Amino acid sequence: MNGSAPDPTEHVLILGGTGEARALASSLAESGIEFISSLAGRVNDPRLPVGPVRIGGFGGTEGLRDWLRSNRIRAVVDATHPFAATITRNAARAAADAGVPLLRLRRDPWVPGDTDTWTRVPDLPSAAREVDARGGRVFLTTGRQDVGVFAGIRSAWFLIRVVDAPTAALPPRHEVLRSRGPYDHASESRLLRDNDIDLLVTKNSGGSLTSAKLVAAAELGIEVIMVDRPAEPDSPVVSDVGAARDWLEALFD
């Protein structure tokens, strides 16, 4: 669904593409609160939530602000990925400009346990430098849009797991594995062992869909290069769908 909403009813805009966004849409479908979900359209054949959906960008902060006003949006829930920094920043600015309340629905980050061996880095270029210094056999799970950051590394072999095929330059020694989670512990352990992986590189996305690789890595004594989350605007934040629905129901009441 694209364009303006067809009626004067006030809606909630869910900025989605995550499991939390789909769960919130399902919850609101039972509540009577009208909503529309928005996906960026960067993944082919995305998992769609229930209810009306629009796909594509808004045209930056100003475009989103105007869309909020013209579509009678009562509230925005930013349930995008923790590393979707641009839309999170644009959403906060646009909602403030339009006078629309915004809530950030963001899953909790992963925290290392006693058996984990993590090296935390602030960004992807830092992760690439750590990989280049170590070499070896690397399991890269940072997403297809970030593969190019590692393209110049010749000291390592990469197993690159992505949903859609990468379009950026690739490291000279690599194998691409196209796959979509969730993943279980047994299959992740087998994948790490079968490919003789000695270094895992990932973003701190949080959640349970892809956390099994961290458990498997810890058990196998594999080091993890963990990319920290980017800074976000100062907005109200909840980490579970129930709290987001409670916030919306209180707002509409």
In the sheet with the most strands, the strands line up as 3-2-1-4-5-12
Quickly give the structural class.
alpha/beta
Number of domains: 2
Named CATH architecture of the largest domain: 3-Layer(aba) Sandwich
What is the 3D shape?
A: elongated
Q: How much β-strand is present in the residues?
A: 15-25%
Gyration radius over CA: 20 Å
Count of strand segments: 12
Query: Major beta sheet, specifics?
Result: 6 strands, parallel
Kindly report how far apart the N and C termini lie.
27 Å
- Classified by CATH, the class of the largest domain is Alpha Beta
Oligomeric grouping of the chains? single chain
- CATH superfamily of the largest domain, by name, is NAD(P)-binding Rossmann-like Domain
The average pLDDT is: 93
How would you spell out the order of helices and strands? EHEEHEHEEHEEEHEHEEH
What share of the residues lie within helices? 25-40%
Low-confidence stretches: 1-7
So how many helices?
Answer: 7
CATH topological fold name of the largest domain: Rossmann fold
Tell me about this structure:
With 253 residues, the protein is an alpha/beta fold. The chain has 2 domains: 12-107 and 231-252, NAD(P)-binding Rossmann-like Domain (Rossmann fold), CATH 3.40.50.720; 118-227, 3-Layer(aba) Sandwich (Rossmann fold). The protein is built from 7 helices and 12 strands. The strands form 2 sheets. Strands 3-2-1-4-5-12 form a 6-stranded parallel β-sheet, sandwiched between helices. Strands 6-11-10-7-8-9 form a 6-stranded parallel β-sheet, with helices on both faces. Mean pLDDT is 93; it is low at 1-7.
